[in-house]
Write a structure and sequence with these properties.
2 domains; 14% strand
Length: 357
């Protein structure tokens, strides 16, 4: 499926050379935009821009603001590195004033974040839909958007929500930007990240590539740098489009099987329960439901995060059993996708049992 799509990209590049861009922008990109718009309930697929990674969009969004004064930024304390590192570096340089809201206590996060958004003026309000270090789902996105200052730019990082949870932006997409990509749950690998911008957005990113005004490339330069009227204003420049070929193939496959994102999430929840039940049967004190963050029953994405004292050592023992998982400081992340079944989870449990000793 995605392997064949990648091969088609190679074939198009080899046989069409520069004319491949006619196919990329005439067929591949519009198809990918349609998939994103369908999955997020956007009103206009043309409001979706693509880039090789989300950091490009982070930088481009920051470049929309006047650099003559420090920007005021509100975010959670659980944002992913693509935003957090760039933001902290800009704060270090004196270009930002940043307030970070702790994820805990989980049960009051939305209330606390919305109160902070309402209590002060912010240039940028940035928030993950699902926290990368815990799988905690922010269920009050609309409340937070309503609380943000009217002229603040609101951006939702949906990387751990896209194709993992059903997402309906029909009531939000005119207010908020939404950023995500295909590396994990969308089964597309690297290079297929996107930004959905509100309709009518007329921002002019200073960090701009030549694709941002693709239709004017044959015209003489004017006194003012032009921008596309749609999401192309947030595009960069020449890129490897193989990720979009793979993304379209994966989304076409889900459609062909009648599989919805709700189906995907329910399956993941079943696999999570099967894993937790298995851990309980193992009876090991070093890894189990009591280590979950947030605790069992809280809104959660498609992975389990365990907070343990010896996370680095335990990860090494799991790797020795051919179990590849992520570690985020004290937290071990076990992900469960549509391509896993109970037999595979049972094999995982056997490996965990050997690792725990």
């Amino acid at each position: 499926m995605t392997e064949a799509a990648h091969a088609r990209y190679w074939s198009d590049s080899a046989t069409l050379a520069d004319r491949k861009w006619e196919r990329v922008f005439g067929e591949v990109v519009p198809a990918a935009q349609q998939h994103v718009a369908r999955l997020l309930s956007l009103s206009d697929p043309r409001q979706v821009a693509f880039a090789p990674n989300t950091h490009e969009f982070v930088s481009r969004i920051y470049s929309c603001f006047d650099a003559a004064r420090p920007l005021r930024v509100l975010a959670s304390a659980s944002e992913f590195h693509s935003f957090r590192r760039q933001t902290r570096r800009l704060r270090e340089a004196g270009r930002l004033v940043v307030e970070e809201i702790s994820a805990t206590p989980w049960e009051t996060f939305t209330e606390r974040f919305a109160a902070a958004a309402h209590a002060s003026y912010w240039d940028l309000v940035w928030l993950s839909h699902v926290f990368f270090d815990s799988a905690f789902v922010v269920t009050g996105i609309e409340t937070i958007c309503d609380a943000a200052p009217r002229d603040a730019l609101v951006c939702i990082d949906g990387y751990h929500a896209f194709c993992a949870l059903p997402v309906d932006l029909s009531r939000l997409h005119r207010r908020a930007f939404y950023i995500a990509g295909g590396y994990k749950y969308a089964m597309s690998g690297e290079g297929a990240c996107f930004l959905a911008i509100p309709p009518g957005c007329d921002l002019r990113p200073a960090d701009t590539g030549w694709f941002a005004s693709f239709d004017t490339l044959s015209s003489a330069p004017g006194a003012v740098v032009p921008y596309a009227s749609d999401a192309f204003r947030f595009w960069g420049a020449t890129f490897d489009s193989s990720g979009l070929y793979r993304f379209n193939a994966a989304m076409d496959w889900l459609l062909s099987t009648g599989t919805t994102i709700d189906d995907v999430h329910r399956h993941s929840v079943r696999m999570q329960k099967h894993f937790l039940d298995g851990l309980a049967r193992l009876g090991r004190s070093s890894l189990g439901a009591r280590h979950l963050v947030p605790s069992a029953g809280a809104p959660r994405g498609n992975f389990l995060a365990f907070d343990v004292d010896d996370a680095e050592a335990l990860q090494a023992r799991l790797v020795a059993q051919d179990v590849v998982i992520d570690r985020r400081e004290r937290r071990l992340r076990f992900g469960f996708g549509v391509y896993h079944d109970e037999a595979e989870v049972d094999r995982l449990l056997d490996a965990v049992a050997r690792a725990l000793g």
